[in-house]
Amino acid sequence: MITIYASKRNFFGTKNSRRLRLKNYFPSIIYGKKKKPILIQLRQDDILNLFNKNNLINKNFLIIIKNLKINVKLQEIQKHPFKHKFVHIDFLRI
């Protein structure tokens, strides 16, 4: 299982997402299993390196947020149209 380290984000919306992207992070969300969604932020360089090394489309991940560990799989990936960057990733609890 592939481990991803993330941190919670308290703000959402276009303005705050732009600020995140300027700091080399991007917004993401974890949802599913009838639990409250968790808004997280991921580091752009870490995720790009992870995806460049492996084909991760059908893999399971372990996301660690401080002391919280969540098993997830990829639900949707949004990439920038011409830059080699992620815009947003949705994760689904398993």
How would you sum up this structure, described in words?
By secondary structure, this protein is an alpha/beta fold. It has a single domain, classed as Ribosomal Protein L25, Chain P. It is 20% helix and 53% strand. The chain is built from 2 helices and 6 strands. The protein has a 6-stranded mixed beta barrel. A hairpin with a 2-residue loop joins strand 2 and strand 3 (35-43). The longest helix is centred in the middle third of the chain and has 10 residues, at 44-53. It is globular and about 30 Å long.
Reading off the top of the CATH hierarchy, the class is best stated as Mainly Beta
Strands, total number: 6
Shape: globular
- For the record, give the distance between the C-alpha atoms at the N and C termini, rounded to a whole number: 13 Å
Total separate domains: 1
Determine the mean pLDDT: 91
Q: Helix coverage percent of residues?
A: 10-25%
At the fold tier of CATH, the topology name is: Ribosomal Protein L25, Chain P
* Class inferred from helices and paired strands: alpha/beta
* The named CATH superfamily: Ribosomal Protein L25, Chain P
Largest sheet: 6 strands, mixed, barrel
Give the name of the CATH architecture.
Beta Barrel
